[in-house]
Write a structure and sequence with these properties.
Layout: E1 3-6, H1 10-22, E2 30-33, H2 37-47, E3 50-51, H3 55-61, E4 64-67, H4 71-81, E5 90-93, H5 100-106, E6 113-117, E7 127-133, H6 139-150, E8 153-157, H7 163-171, H8 173-190, H9 195-216, H10 220-227, H11 233-243, H12 246-261
Parallel strand pairs: 1-2, 1-4, 2-3, 4-5, 5-6, 7-8
Antiparallel strand pairs: 6-7
Helix pairs in contact: 7-12, 8-9
The chain binds 1,4-dihydronicotinamide adenine dinucleotide and (2S)-3,4-dihydro-2H-pyrrole-2-carboxylic acid.
Domain Pyrroline-5-carboxylate reductase catalytic N-terminal: 2-96
Function: Catalyzes the reduction of 1-pyrroline-5-carboxylate (PCA) to L-proline.
Subcellular location: Cytoplasm
Length: 266
């Protein structure tokens, strides 16, 4: 099986690294093309991938064609490769905010298409990806497309109406969690730690908390209560964070993310 990537930016590279780590396909079966020749050619050389000279060649020579460009140019790129796509190939889009219906409209209503929303943690096998298939994608072909993401982490099949919210609390939230870690780290610097040490402490604490949450099967609120000793330090911190608007600021950020992604339509 050959997997072609059109666009080799941050997200495509994370998926590619995840696939290479998982040995999902041989490196040369991963085909790439993007706008910046020097960049994608060097990248392909570095990892033993196949660099194609055009987007059309990627589409022509791949079984799974992954559209990994920004939403603003998705329509142009699909117009460029439309003739190379066929019912024997699966188009996989990672483009935020572009629906299956719009992808069909821009290509062909008979094509098997998987709309997906991965996150950048796919690079280390810890991704969280939402997928939705159109009516033309079923059985083994659908399983094959989903298996690509299973090789890089967890996968949830969702209704498209849930994609924007999923993207905000998963795709974008990788950055928000890092923002939180960086905020903890800066607090550590305020109290005398080096940035490097504070970041290591904050990142390990975040990793450990996520692990404990998933391993215990308890809710975050139950775990918060365990840490808040009666009359203790943590409850004082929680109350001060709430007074500063911690929860409303997160909800506002997620609202803004959803509003932006629902404005994308390729
Ligand atoms: N970065 C992330 O964490 C996530 C990104 N996405 C989606 O992935 C897509 C790509 O995002 P990023 O990787 O962040 O952007 P990026 O800017 O890092 O990558 C875009 C790639 O497209 C290439 N490109 C530009 N014009 C092209 C053309 N005409 N033909 C072929 N390639 C072309 C660029 O050279 C670059 O390699 C977006 O649609 C975004 O919504 C989805 C989930 C998470
Ligand atoms: O920021 C973005 O537009 C993309 C979509 C989800 C994560 N990154």
């Amino acid at each position: 099986m050959k997997i072609g990537f059109i666009g080799v930016g941050a997200m495509a590279q994370a998926i590619i690294q995840g696939l290479l780590n998982a040995k999902f396909v041989p490196a040369e079966n991963i085909l790439v093309h993007s706008a910046h020749k020097a960049h994608y050619e060097n990248y392909a050389k570095q990892y033993g991938l196949t660099a194609e000279a055009t987007n059309q060649q990627v589409a022509e020579n791949s079984d799974l064609v992954v559209l990994a460009v920004v939403p603003a140019i998705a329509a142009d790129v699909l117009a460029e490769i439309r003739d190379q796509l066929s019912t024997q190939k699966t188009l996989i889009s990672i483009v935020s905010g572009v629906s299956l219906n719009r992808l069909e409209e821009l290509t062909d209503y008979n094509l098997p298409i998987l709309r997906s929303l991965p996150n950048i943690n796919s690079q280390y096998g810890q991704g969280m990806t939402a997928v939705a298939a159109n009516e033309n994608l079923s059985g083994d072909r659908k399983a094959q497309a989903i298996a690509m993401y299973e090789a890089t982490g967890s996968v949830s099949e969702l209704s498209e109406s849930q994609f924007a919210a999923f993207s905000a609390i998963s795709g974008s939230a990788v950055a928000y969690v890092d923002f939180f870690i960086d905020s903890l780290s800066r607090a550590g610097v305020k109290y005398g730690f080096t940035k490097e040490m504070a970041t290591q402490i904050a990142a390990q604490t975040t990793l450990g908390s996520a692990h404990s949450l998933m391993a215990s099967g308890q809710t975050p609120a139950e775990l918060i209560d365990k840490v808040c000793s009666p009359g203790g330090d943590t409850i004082a911190g929680i109350l001060a964070m709430e007074q500063a608007g911690f929860l409303p600021s997160i909800i506002k950020g997620i609202d803004a993310t959803i509003a932006k992604s629902t404005g994308n339509n390729g």
